[in-house]
Design a protein that fits this description.
Blueprint (H helix, E strand, L loop, with lengths): L1 H28 L5 H8 L5 E3 L5 E3 L5 E3 L4 E5 L9 E4 L2 E3 L3 H18 L12 E3 L4 E10 L4 E9 L10 E9 L11 H8 L2 E3 L37 H8 L4 E5 L2 E6 L2 E6 L2 E5 L1
Parallel strand pairs: 5-10
Antiparallel strand pairs: 1-2, 3-8, 3-11, 4-7, 4-10, 5-6, 8-9, 9-10, 12-13, 13-14, 14-15
């Protein structure tokens, strides 16, 4: 009798362990995506190749537009990593003098290795990226322990009609309030990143400064539709422009693109209509 009871208890114990294991596995499968996973879905990283002339070519990636002045970058061919700027509380702060000086010294040593007879002092290899210049995400590293996201980009000089094209690499350390990255909510994170790198869904992101457009910059008024036009949430920018024409003004605020017509304001997020006023 005692053996039968012990055997029954073992069976019950094994059953309980199996049920607990299945519950834990189901909980893990249904767990919400992490901040890193959400950012990977939002920002498609650029894939790099080299063409016959040796120039770096971007094959694909999410197009971004730079929204802040003061972002320094190194030529992509430079073997050193760029000095990361810091963005916190709405302010973009350049890296310290020590890092910049080290990059200049390192570039000088690299140039001497390539040209031993060149005794000219190395110039500062860094450049300032312009507001509105296009860039592509190259690497996104989430450090939840230190409430920091390192966002590296490859800036695109071909967009500025460079021939041959020149590419630059830059990095920004986004600092967040303590515990925000551990919360799993990426909405505030994406809005903060968008204040420096907005998603360029239609080439209008360079107007992010919201300055009054001069006569040469003003877009032509939207043509009056022949019949009433209905704009619905979820429509794309191309669908709206097909229905209403080009807007009088286009603005980019963080991750949002706003089209202003004479009698309507349309807000897009991720390239689709989210609000009509």
């Amino acid at each position: 009798m005692r053996q039968t009871t012990q055997k029954a208890l073992k069976i019950l114990s094994w059953s309980a362990v199996a049920v607990l294991s299945s519950s834990l596995a189901a909980a893990q499968d249904s767990a919400a995506p992490s901040i890193a996973e959400q950012l990977q879905a939002q920002y498609k990283l650029a894939k790099l190749t080299r063409d016959a002339s040796g120039n770096v070519v971007i094959s694909e990636g999410t197009a971004l537009a730079i929204q802040k002045d003061g972002l320094k970058a190194l030529p992509f061919a430079n073997p050193l990593n760029p000095c990361a700027s810091t963005y916190a509380d709405g302010r973009l702060k350049a890296a310290g003098f020590g890092c910049q000086a080290a990059r200049q010294l390192g570039t000088g040593l690299f140039q001497k290795l390539l040209n031993p007879g060149n005794d000219q002092p190395a110039s500062d290899p860094s450049v300032n990226l312009a507001v509105g210049q296009r860039a592509y995400p190259a690497k996104i590293a989430v450090d939840a322990q230190h409430d920091t996201i390192k966002f590296s980009v490859l800036a695109c000089d071909p967009c500025n009609a460079g021939d041959p094209p020149t590419y630059y690499k830059a990095a920004v350390d986004f600092r967040f309030p303590k515990g925000l990255l551990a919360s799993g909510d990426a909405s505030q994170v994406e809005d903060t990143i968008g204040q420096v790198f907005s998603i360029d869904s239609g080439g209008d992101a360079a107007q992010a400064q919201d300055a009054p457009a001069g006569p040469a910059q003003a877009a032509s008024p939207a043509p009056a539709p022949a019949e009433p036009v209905s704009i619905q949430q979820g429509q794309t920018i191309a669908e709206v422009e097909q229905a209403l024409g080009k807007p009088v003004k286009a603005l980019t605020v963080a991750t949002k693109v706003i089209y202003i017509y004479p009698d309507m304001k349309i807000t897009f997020r991720n390239g689709k209509v989210t609000d009509v006023q």
